[in-house]
Amino acid sequence: MSPRDAIAAPVPDDDFQSLVGILPEPLQAAVRDLPSGEILEVVMDLGRVPEARLTGRVVRLSGSAVTRKDLEHVLAQVGTVSEDNRAGIERTLHRVSAIRNRQGKVVGLTLRVGRAIYGTIDMLKDLIGTGLNILLLGRPGVGKTTKLREVARVLSDDLGKRVMVVDTSNEIGGDGDIPHPGIGGARRMQVSRPDRQHDVMIEAVENHMPEAIIVDEIGTSAEASAARTIAERGVQLVATAHGNTLENLVLNPTLSDLVGGVHTVTLSDEEARRRRTQKTISERRAPPTFDVVVEMVTRDEVLVHRDTAQSVDRLLAGENVGGERRQLVEGQVEVKEEPEAVAPLPSRPARPGRTAPTGEAPSREGAPTPRREPGLRQGTTRVYAHAASRDLLERVLRDIGADARVVGRLENADVVLTLRSRANDPKLRKVSERTGARVLAIKRNSSSEMRRVLRDIFLIAEGVDEDQVREAVAEAEHAIQRVLSESVVVPLAPRPPRLRKLQHRLVSRYHLETVSHGSEPQRHLIIYPLGALVDMPQGRELDVEEEGAGGLA
Fold first, then answer.
1. pLDDT reported for residue 6
2. Where is 266: in which H helix or E strand?
């Protein structure tokens, strides 16, 4: 059977029937009518209709709502619900997770189908036999635990090693005292409470002389410390951890020790000049616990960092991390090297009629690449999150309704959003100067900070009709062009306060001066060339809506 067939193989019928058998009688027939290989989980919430979640769809199992009696029926047939609200069916990989109310009573159940699938680590088999410590990263549901179970079987059965599985929630070896055949000849140590996982990891090394230890979901500093202790004793460690990418892990203060940890170093003036960096930089603190880091992109695609130390050093230096991208295509593993340096992209032609970029004189031959201005260019603006949360950025862009999308490469970005502490990274400066991307710095990784900065840069006036915003921006653009090219004073049409603030933001990018004249509803902006004598109206007061807009209100 090819690896592709193995991955698509359904749960053995007798194993799947063990899960179906604990459901209330009316639901059993409904679940049996569904293709067993596509079922991911069955959800039962008190007072709601029960559902089966399949690959790509959800199916209602009954027209009647779940009762407390239905929940008690399922709980009576599974193992003891532990402190982490999980239980299982003995000698299977199925998991039953409980949701409780404030009084501790169960009001919902998630019955997750567990699968022992062979052939899932063909992409990583050459790494498993090296004896190196390997860390798997990936989002929930991408198959980390499934691969970990297969690693235990391959190490013990195919390579003949003494393997110990530290099984916190019985997800790897299944419920009950006898482990599931999916882990092969590996032995299994169960963990009485989730907060004791680090103790059991050390106990496994001290008491049972393993050559390899398998651990699922390292998530605390105590577990990270235990992992380093195991690695220093010469035992191969294969584990999973919370985080999607290597960068996520480096930025996680709790788990960064797994890849060497990060600390801040202050350089001398001479060293800073030699390195061409700022004086305060981030560096790796120690050798990484894990020699190899594997980012699981999908079930059939991974990105392998063969030298964790080198990858982390490149990441902290602001360079492209590189790596080895492996994909399973029609049963064959395809390997492609990720570039460590990316060729520069050709600059995009400027929009007709545009004038000088933000804060620069009109472009001349040999001048820097003009900055790309969001809100002024046609088409969707491409935004890159540098040392900032990509998921949070995508959510904020959706919330404010900006015509933008998040891209995965710095070189493709029109706008780069970064933390203030990382704004002077050498690579970021170099790429932004070459491509003309605008760099926005935020003080902290929060939605309010992102919203504040992005709302200004995308010229968004909340609560104002889009056509009015477009008209106000177009008028200001045309006026800016005239002021820059003809050095004349240009008055704008009267606008409501929010639209005047938006025009102020736009004009301030060109370091021109603006003054608000008149009284509502005839109050309007006048744009002056740089250095011109500004006519300040007598008794003038700053508009509340226009404070902080970047020009003279």
1. 40
2. strand 262-266
